[in-house]
Design a protein that fits this description.
The structure holds two protein chains of two kinds. Chain A is mostly helical. Chain A has helices spanning 3-9, 29-68, 85-91, 94-125, 132-140, 147-157, 164-171, 183-211, 215-223, 228-239, 241-255, 260-265, 283-293, 297-349, 359-362; strands spanning 70-73, 77-81. Classes of the chains: A mainly alpha, B mainly alpha.
């Protein structure tokens, strides 16, 4: 520790600026060391991350592209160079397109209801309820159940004969549904697992955004005669839009990578590749099948890249779309808010409203 | 509302600094509590149902709405312990998750602090890089990673599960976002004037300030490592599994005794349920402060 000595004399020394500045050549060894310390330390601190990430994150990314250009088997290893052959093969594979269809279908069935329900739960939690912490924790409970356990529990509940869901449906006179054989039914069942685990989580993120909305906005809207529903759509939704976009994008990235749920939904038929007819085989599951079941690494790597491009593409579309909507609506909102804030601050200065100011800062976290 | 069109990835603030809502007039009614109760029921009943069926027989699953547990839980648990290497799997999961958590938290705090508070050439560019890599799905790398692990002869070993997750871009980003606000620059300046060198400043200024965020990051990293399935499934073999891959083995085979499978599911949920009871508040707070899917 070079610092112990200088530390003791520190209280006596006035702050740096007042000391006369010395030329570079006059630096003592310790000063030079300290200068080196200042310069090199940041790199030292970030290097464990970047070195490890380079090996386990970046290198595999590039290497996947290399593998995808070769005929590459699990056991035989690298074969001959085939150029884009694997990509052509995959794009002409009807199982690949089947998996893309299933992924999208399950993704839409999970993300849309999930976000709507999460919004409703968040709006209720945003009310002045009693036992806040209890209710917040209760919506988060499913999040601590691992996807594998979720898949086991729900694939049992969605059993075709004597599963809980069919039993309950029987109570209201609905015939048993073929949850594992029917394509749409299996997608709904798998989407239910995803929704069960993630809705409460997303509700809490949205709730946090809702709590950042200044309350006076609601009060003045209520004074203007806006009902609860109107306030929700005209104030809440526009105000939490950045968070909403964020939730939608993370739901997209997660939703396109579903694996454990379809893998374990019905293992008794066809060994867990997504149903006897691949009716609920997602793309990641197909990637797994291609690599470790059919042992074709070349094509599996091509699938990995196509999936990546798909995720990036959809993420972009999502982002641009929501941003566009957001900017159009916030422009309108901004005008309204500014006007309202103006009124409020007028009133505040007259001593009518206590907490009108400070709203501008709140948005820029 | 100055920059609303710009999407911030870190959009939410903790509820601490918010104005108190007034109590008058807006007390929610029966409808709100009814809805929350329904959500609670929906969250909890599948778990309770698993326990009820797990403590019964395969026939219990056929009952319409079983509510009371039977007396078979221990017998079924014994079957689970005989069918899969449960204790090995549990120990493996604990080791894997702990090592990953420790590593992620330490390296993220170091890097996050450097990005948040130190000035160095290339900082902004590197930070953009970190954020960009968060969007890369882990599945993209599994094939080369598997090839690497096999070449090193590490397949089947816990190290192969641990190494790919030793650092996460999310962790660095999370710590950076936290530290950038929470440590005043003056404090670091003061430490420097007092003659503390960089690493000393890190230990005496940054580390104490970072502690709450480190705890949250640790919680989420642990959960992520604990629940991971795809990679352990690929790289480990059935005799030396993690809890998740061991659990998945319960369901293989043509005859499935669901009361045993569900007993296994319940047993696997217990450790995280304990964590939930002990640290549920922190989990809620962490999510509400902007923790995201890892």
């Amino acid at each position: 520790m070079t610092s112990t000595l200088s530390r003791t004399e520190a209280p006596a020394t006035p702050p740096e600026e007042t000391r006369p500045r010395r030329g570079r050549s006059d630096l003592t060894f310790r000063q030079r060391l300290s200068r080196f310390d200042v310069k090199a330390s940041p790199y030292l601190y970030i290097s464990p991350f970047f070195l490890t990430f380079g090996v386990v994150g970046l290198f595999p990314l590039v290497y996947t592209l290399v593998v995808s250009l070769y005929d590459w088997q699990l056991l035989q290893g690298q074969g001959e160079f085939v150029g884009l052959g694997n990509f052509v093969e995959v794009l002409g594979d009807r199982f690949f397109w089947n998996s893309i269809f299933n992924t999208f279908s399950i993704f839409l069935l999970s993300s849309i209801p999930q976000i709507i329900v999460a919004l409703v739960i968040a709006a209720v939690l945003d009310q002045n309820i009693k036992a806040k912490t209890f209710w917040r924790m209760s919506v988060l409970l499913p999040y601590v159940v691992a996807p594998v356990a979720v898949a086991l529990i729900f694939s049992s509940m969605f059993g075709e004969e004597s599963g809980l869901v069919n039993n309950l449906l029987g109570l209201v006179g609905i015939d048993p549904i073929q949850w594992k054989h029917d394509t749409l039914a299996s997608h709904i069942a798998i989407a239910t697992m995803v929704n069960w685990r993630w809705t409460g989580y997303n509700a809490l993120i949205l709730l946090a955004a809702m709590q950042a909305i200044p309350r006076d906005l609601y009060e003045s809207a209520a004074l203007d005669g806006a009902g609860a529903v109107r306030r929700f759509f005209s104030i809440t939704i526009p105000s939490i839009r950045p968070t909403l976009i964020f939730v939608i994008i993370t739901a997209t990235i997660g939703g396109l990578q579903i694996f454990a749920e379809p893998k374990l939904f019905d293992v008794t038929s066809a060994g867990g590749i997504g149903g006897y007819d691949r009716q609920f085989q997602t793309t990641v599951l197909y990637l797994w099948e291609m690599a470790f079941f059919r042992q074709n690494f070349g094509e599996a790597a091509a699938i990995a890249w196509l999936l990546f491009l798909l995720i990036v593409g959809i993420g972009m579309i999502n982002f641009l779309l929501s941003r566009r909507i957001a900017s159009a609506e916030t422009r309108a909102l901004k005008k309204r808010t500014a006007k309202r804030l103006g009124e409020h601050q007028d009133r505040a200065s007259q001593g009518l409203v206590g907490e009108g100011a400070g709203v501008e800062d709140r948005g820029n976290a | 509302m100055t920059a609303p069109a710009q999407t911030r990835i870190f959009p939410v603030r903790g509820p601490a600094a918010l104005p108190r809502r007034r109590g008058r007039g807006d007390r929610p009614g029966f409808l709100a509590y009814g809805l929350l109760s329904a959500v609670l029921l929906g969250s909890a009943y599948p778990l309770w149902w698993s326990f009820v069926v797990g403590s019964g027989t395969n026939a219990t699953r056929g009952e319409t709405l079983p509510l009371l547990p039977g007396g078979n839980f221990l017998a079924n648990a014994a079957t689970v312990l005989g069918a899969i290497p449960f204790w090995t799997a549990l120990a493996n999961s604990v080791i894997v998750s702990s090592v990953i958590t420790l590593s992620v938290v330490i390296f993220s705090t170091l890097a996050g602090y450097a990005f948040a508070k130190l000035r160095f050439r290339g900082r902004d560019g590197l930070m953009v890089f970190v954020v960009a890599t968060m969007a890369i799905p882990t599945q993209l790398g599994i094939i080369p990673l598997f090839i690497m692990m096999r070449q090193l002869g590490w397949t089947g070993q816990l190290g192969a599960v641990i190494i790919p997750t030793l650092v996460t871009a999310f962790g660095v980003f999370f710590m950076r976002q936290y530290l950038v606000d929470v440590i005043p620059d003056e404090l670091i300046e003061a430490a420097r004037v007092d003659g503390a060198n960089q690493i000393r400043t890190f230990f005496h200024v940054a580390l104490p300030a970072a502690r709450p965020a480190m705890a949250i990051l640790a919680l989420f990293t642990f959960m992520m490592a604990w629940t991971d399935f795809l990679w352990p499934l690929i790289v480990l073999n059935p005799t030396n599994p993690t809890l998740q891959t061991a659990l998945a083995q319960l369901q293989s085979g043509y005859y499935v005794d669901y009361s045993v499978v569900l007993t296994g599911a319940v047993l696997s949920v217990v450790p995280l349920l304990i964590l939930f009871v002990a640290a549920g508040r922190q989990l809620v707070a962490g999510i509400m402060q902007g923790a995201v899917k890892g």
